[in-house]
Design a protein that fits this description.
With 303 residues, the protein is of the alpha/beta class. It has a single domain, classed as TIM Barrel (Alpha-Beta Barrel). The chain has 13 helices and 8 strands. Strands 1-2-3-4-5-6-7-8 form an 8-stranded parallel β-barrel, surrounded by 6 helices. Helix 8 links the parallel strand 6 and strand 7. Helix 3 runs parallel beside helix 4 and helix 9 packs antiparallel against helix 10. The protein is globular, with a radius of gyration of 19 Å. The two termini are 26 Å apart.
Length: 303
Amino acid sequence: MTGFPRKDDVSAEPSTANALLACGSIEVMPRTAAKIGDFRGLLRPGTRVYIAHINGTLIDDMVAAARRLTDEGFAPMPHLPARIIPDRDTLESWVRRYREEAGVTQALLLGGGVAQPSGELDSSMAMLETGIFDRLGFTRLHVAGHPEGNKDIDIEGGTLRVDDALQWKQRFSERTDAQMAIVTQFAFDAVPVITWAERLEAVGIRLPIHVGVAGPTKLQTLIKFAVACGVGPSLSVLQKRALDFRKLLVPYEPTDFLADIAAYKAKRPESLIEQIHVFPLGGIQASAQWLSRLPDEARCDQR
């Protein structure tokens, strides 16, 4: 792997870490958002806030959360999970409501974590092919990335199907005006993430990568989420940490992981890796406080 930092280099680039964090996004669920009095007391103005759409969540609640975030000066990016959407008419209705009622112009398109599709839409590609987003003025469309593979997609292991899907999305970005990026599942070891990013670049993918980071939380909580979400090789980082009794007593923070990513980015600024996305597994307040530890001069070129 080219340019991966030595361990004695990983904390040498605070400015690069700040740059990755300055544009860092975060996500909430509508029920979580309802518990926050005012996001302006937690997040920097203009922060991109993904709104997770869990199966069973009412679209009314999703749109209301998006409207509130827009009103408070943030950039809401609702999830659109294909497999829970019954048909194209429903997809168009949801996208139109986000646009007209909440001023939303961006979305994260997902296959959705259910075994059987509710209808004809079974993937982010199927949603892209409808042309609905372009027609209704959505200018930014993000898609999922899986540095450690996805056994729900590549059932027998490997990365053949997820790789093919990203190649398709790269071609889609080239033939349309959509601004696209890849946001990844969270990981705990920078090595497989960097290896994956370099492999994508080698096969001609040029979409920016927003690396998923698990926000501060208890180690036991983190391991539970990691197993449930299918985190692969980097899970060993948590397992090693669990053997150290002293580390069991303090919350996990992704400081070492970010330092490794930042050191790599400093050595290869042309890398597809551009910023981070925080999964607030220990609560949005803890993650927001962690994100806020930036110098005031840190600037963001939101992509």
